[in-house]
Automatic annotation (TrEMBL):
<dbReference type="InterPro" id="IPR058353">
    <property type="entry name" value="DUF8040"/>
</dbReference>
<protein>
    <recommendedName>
        <fullName>DUF8040 domain-containing protein</fullName>
    </recommendedName>
</protein>
<feature type="compositionally biased region" description="Basic and acidic residues">
    <location>
        <begin position="16"/>
        <end position="26"/>
    </location>
</feature>
<dbReference type="InterPro" id="IPR045249">
    <property type="entry name" value="HARBI1-like"/>
</dbReference>
<feature type="domain" description="DUF8040">
    <location>
        <begin position="73"/>
        <end position="154"/>
    </location>
</feature>
<dbReference type="Pfam" id="PF26138">
    <property type="entry name" value="DUF8040"/>
</dbReference>
<feature type="region of interest" description="Disordered">
    <location>
        <begin position="1"/>
        <end position="36"/>
    </location>
</feature>
Length: 205
């Protein structure tokens, strides 16, 4: 309610300035003397409004004080699929693509927090809303962080870390283990399939 009153008051002030400017036919921005609106503010007829950027307050204590300072290696492995040392090294490698500057509106999320948000979303079945609540950020912020980190990994690390190898060599290797015509394996991903009518028990999903 108070915020709505501030918005309405700001609108009235803006309308008053526009009306005064129109009546006088003068460009107030070029005036060397005090503006009429300044005189009215000094006389107490118009209240100056401090313009502020509003954002919903959220808590980041869980990340700042628990995860970063308290969690042991087993907790990092279980939740982020990597040790804390590996996580910090990853943040350092991705920093050239993830650097952001603070604005007058709000402070930018740290690189560590953005990488952590992305890893948590990729490593768990949690929804965007759940991850947002976990890290004390907005739901849209989670989506942006995931995309930023994914693009940074592709741009900076894909050519250095991920090697696909020769496809035929991979197929031969899987065939030797009893998996013919297989060119790769996807870990941690559930892919629904429709089994054939016959021998359905061999295609349990």
């Amino acid at each position: 309610f108070q915020r709505q009153m501030q918005i309405n008051r700001a609108r009235r002030q803006r309308k008053l300035r526009e009306d005064m400017n129109s009546e006088r036919g003068t460009d107030l921005s070029q005036s060397t003397g005090p503006r009429p609106v300044d005189i009215m503010v000094a006389m107490g007829h118009v209240d100056p409004v401090e313009r502020r950027f509003w954002a919903r307050e959220t808590s980041t204590d869980w990340w700042d004080r628990i995860v970063l300072q308290v969690w042991d290696e087993s907790q990092w492995l279980r939740n982020f699929r990597m040790r804390k040392g590996t996580f910090l090294e990853l943040c350092e490698l991705l920093s050239p693509a993830l650097k952001r500057q603070d604005t007058r509106m709000r402070a930018a999320l740290t690189i560590q927090k953005r990488v952590a948000i992305a890893l948590w979303k990729l490593a768990t079945p949690d929804s965007y809303r759940s991850v947002a609540n976990q890290f004390g950020v907005g739901k849209s912020t989670v989506g942006v962080a995931v995309m930023q980190v994914a693009h940074a990994i592709v741009d900076l690390l894909l050519s250095k870390v991920v090697t696909l190898g020769d496809v035929q060599v991979i197929i031969d290797g899987f065939s030797a283990m009893g998996f013919p015509n297989c060119g790769g394996a996807i870990d941690g991903t559930h892919i629904p399939i429709l089994g054939p009518d016959h021998q359905g028990s061999q295609y349990i999903n």
